[in-house]
Amino acid sequence: MTNGEVWEITLQDRKTKTEEIQKEQDGLARKLSIAWFEEDMYARLVERRPKYKEVFEQKRIASEELYNQLKEKQNALAEEIKLINMEIEYIEEKIRLGTR
Questions:
Q1: CA atoms in the 13 A half-sphere facing the CB of 61
Q2: Cα–Cα dist 48/66, whole Å
Q3: What DSSP line would sit under 27-61, residue for residue?
Q4: Cα end-to-end distance, the chain, whole Å
């Protein structure tokens, strides 16, 4: 296998990984929107339904924690994509220049 073939295979692997991460990010964006909405909903229900304040407050806290976890995951994926893009740039440069 030539260097050029290895570079092409590696480049394709990185691009595939980027696509997979972007799909995961899309799913996270949906989940984040839902968690944000639920947190807001429960906060308002705490105010509107004093009888159920404790229950809704627990649900609000759970939604807030979920939102924070999802946001952290989203940020980690964004960082991973940034790093993979740097790798892609390097590989493309190797291919363009044909250097070892």
A1: 6
A2: 23
A3: HHHHHHHHHHHHHHHHHHHHHH-GGGHHHHHHHHH
A4: 14
Which range marks the domain in which residue 29 is found?
A: 3-94
Q: What is the pLDDT of residues 29-40, one digit of tens each?
A: 999 999 999 999
Please count the structural domains in the chain.
1
Question: Domain for residue 99, yes or no?
Answer: no
Distance from chain centroid for Cα 40? 22
Q: Compute, in degrees rounded to 10, the torsion defined by CA atoms 74, 79, 81, 85.
A: 160
Residue 100 lies in a domain: no
Q: Is the pTM of this model over 0.70?
A: yes
